[in-house]
Amino acid sequence: MADFKIKLAIIGVGRMGITHYSIINSHPYVKITSVADTSSLILNLMKKYLNGIHTYDDYNKLLDQEVLDAIIICTPPSLHYQVAIKAAEKGIHVFSEKPFTTDNYKARELAAIFEHKKLVNQVGYVNRFNDIFRTVKNYIEKGVIGNVIRFKSEMYSRTITKTEEGKTWRDSRENGGGAVFEVASHAIDLVNFLIGKPDKVTGTSLTSIYSKNVEDAVNSTFLYKNGISGTLNVNWSDESFRKPTNKIEVFGSQGKILADQHGIKIYMKNNSSENNLREGWNTIYITDIFKPVPFYVRGNEFTAQLYHFAECIKNNTIKNNCTFRDATNTLDVIDAIFNDFELNGKF
Amino acid sequence: MQPIDKIIFGDNQFFGINHMSQEKAQQLAEQFFDIAAIFRVYQMAFDSGIRAIMLNSNDRASEICSHFVANKSKYPDLNWYPSIPYPHKYANLISEKGIIPTINEILFKDNSAFGILGMITKGGAAVLGKDAVKLMQMLVDVEMKMFKGLNVKVVFLQNIITDLLLGYGVGDIFGEYCDYIRKKYNAMPGLITQNMPYLMQKLHEWNIDKVVICSSFNKIGYLMSPDTDSYIFEARKNDPLKYQIMAMSTLASGAIPAKEAYEFINQQNIQSVVFGASSKKHIEETVSLIKIK
Ligand SMILES: NC(=O)c1ccc[n+]([C@@H]2O[C@H](COP(=O)([O-])OP(=O)(O)OC[C@H]3O[C@@H](n4cnc5c(N)ncnc54)[C@H](O)[C@@H]3O)[C@@H](O)[C@H]2O)c1
């Protein structure tokens, strides 16, 4: 096993692909053999500075010609499906960036194929690997705040802060752009991860602030048959945030959790010595709970998610933490948001 | 290798950067909205004997630099430790426009800045893209413009860039960066990293030395990959004539009390500490606690 290396390719080497390359290239059991992108600039640079890497301007050629164990897909979202389906035919494990297709039917199809073929399949909902949100999940599952009653999931970033000319894929919903696919998907996935998938979506508003063709902000309400309810509030045109920020608030019968990527505040109705929490407010910082990673580029969670992907390939008994099935559930909610807005959100 | 300053005054506190708390960050941003408040804090640092400043090339930094250039006679002789680039500027532009248009905008927006090269506006970055070294040099020049007229001792590459390139294992680019900083700016090259042990091993392998390495260094291993022990070990076997090590995040964003933090730091084989604070009390306390050899 010692000299077995996972042979891996990266499809789409833009912002995300560039980061993922650096991180996974540090993994002792991974060897990146090839990349595909339509930009000749990036291909030329990689050929020139990275010894022995094979570069392709067409991912089909890459998948036909390379002998591979795994790929990481970082193309614009509308291409994720066709790349993944071809990889499945060839028996290749896939890590796909979110939202992993823009269509929940196709997503379901992919999930089924990969499950059937027993191929590792993972989507880049990176918050699932953030030490804070993992701790929140653990608290909720252990019932630290009792039964969940209400919640808020928010996300803010300064992605689009000027009038958008409508030239990039980010300004087209068909191509997977817009604040719902790009940003809210993270906040929705966090709800699915922490609370579960909502049974009903209602009260959606989609607001354009700078973009011509897509929404820049979204509000929505999530309802559950068991009585839980929550709201989603996302804005990718909020300059007051220096970095993309997720916030979550969960109110339960025994207390309340407030969390963002930096830390957790918990209000407890009663003392809980087994969880080291006292009655009233408690603060837990990222410095109290972080798990170090072997190599850091841009946040522990980015390394943790890709190393997890590699682990799952090496050891097929490990359960993946963010599968195509999980991401399909997130797409179902996204689909419900768009439908609700079409039906009820317009005058 | 010329020794660097033992104590360097950092800048995160001025720009609303706090890794641990959004609220604290917002509060700091408000406190330093007025640039005069920043200069008052610098004065406190000088009063407690500090003569070295580390400053990231962000939007507000150019205002700070011009002030110190224009008022040189009012201040003691200072050593400057710029860190480049300001990553968020690029991150935001890239998410709005894409990678190539961003580089175009940054390099060619202000045509006069590059004389003849400025004339190749559209597609300029694409031409340069074939030559990453030239591209790197031009980006360094853009970021360094604001530090003109100051006594620059070390030019640091931000960890987001250092660690990204480290992951690719491209020794040549590191070598070229270091050469360029020495030749063009007559300064020492510096690399900020959150993977200090791995970076040091690679630099040895690539035969790149006479570099200043800046990395988080604290007892609890916060922002230190893979772990604290590897850092202690790597620092212990380091020869400071080859690499000088500068510690940052010594308090782990406030998780470690200052006294305890520096008791640990003072035992390490490191050459320098960069810290930020915004009150006289904290500045003086920190200066008195740092006793590295
Ligand atoms: N998890 C996160 O935090 C996060 C953050 C940013 C982006 N993303 C996701 O990553 C994906 C990519 O986003 P990005 O910001 O890197 O976009 P990008 O536009 O920077 O990169 C996309 C890359 O794909 C290439 N490409 C386009 N068509 C191609 C084709 N047919 N074959 C091969 N390559 C092709 C482009 O040339 C470009 O280099 C998206 O799904 C996005 O949602 C995730």
In short:
With about 350 residues, chain A is of the alpha/beta class. Chain A has helices spanning about 15-25, 40-50, 60-65, 80-90, 105-115, 130-140, 180-195, 285-290, 300-315, 325-345; strands at about 5-10, 30-35, 55, 70-75, 95, 120-125, 150-155, 200-205, 215-225, 230-235, 245-250, 255-260, 265-270, 280-285.
Describe the protein in words.
- The complex is a heterodimer of chains A (347) and B (293).
- By secondary structure, chain A is α/β, with parallel strands linked by helices.
- Chain A has 2 domains: 6-126 and 301-320, NAD(P)-binding Rossmann-like Domain (Rossmann fold); 127-293 and 330-344, Dihydrodipicolinate Reductase, domain 2 (2-Layer Sandwich), CATH 3.30.360.
- Chain A is 34% helix and 24% strand.
- Chain A is built from 10 helices and 14 strands.
- Chain A has helices spanning 15-25, 40-49, 59-65, 80-89, 104-116, 131-141, 178-194, 286-289, 300-314, 324-344, and strands spanning 6-11, 30-36, 54-56, 70-73, 93-96, 121-123, 148-156, 200-207, 217-223, 229-235, 245-252, 255-260, 263-268, 280-285.
- In chain A, the strands form 2 sheets. Chain A has an 8-stranded mixed beta sheet.
- In chain A, helix 4 runs parallel beside helix 5 (104-116), helix 5 runs antiparallel to helix 10 (324-344) and helix 7 (178-194) packs across helix 10.
- Chain A is globular.
- Chain A starts with 5 loop residues before the first strand and ends with a helix.
- With 293 residues, chain B is an alpha/beta fold.
- Chain B has one domain (52-219, 233-252, 270-289).
- Chain B is 46% helix and 14% strand.
- Chain B contains 13 helices and 8 strands.
- Chain B has an 8-stranded parallel beta sheet with strand order 1-8-7-6-5-4-3-2.
- In chain B, strand 2 (52-56), helix 3 and strand 3 form a beta-alpha-beta unit.
- Chain B is globular and about 50 Å long.
- The interface between A and B is large, with 44 and 46 residues.
- The site of nicotinamide-adenine-dinucleotide has 23 residues of chain A, from helix 1.
- Nicotinamide-adenine-dinucleotide binds at residues 11-17, 36-39, 42, 59, 74-77, 79, 97-98, 124, 126, 182 of chain A.
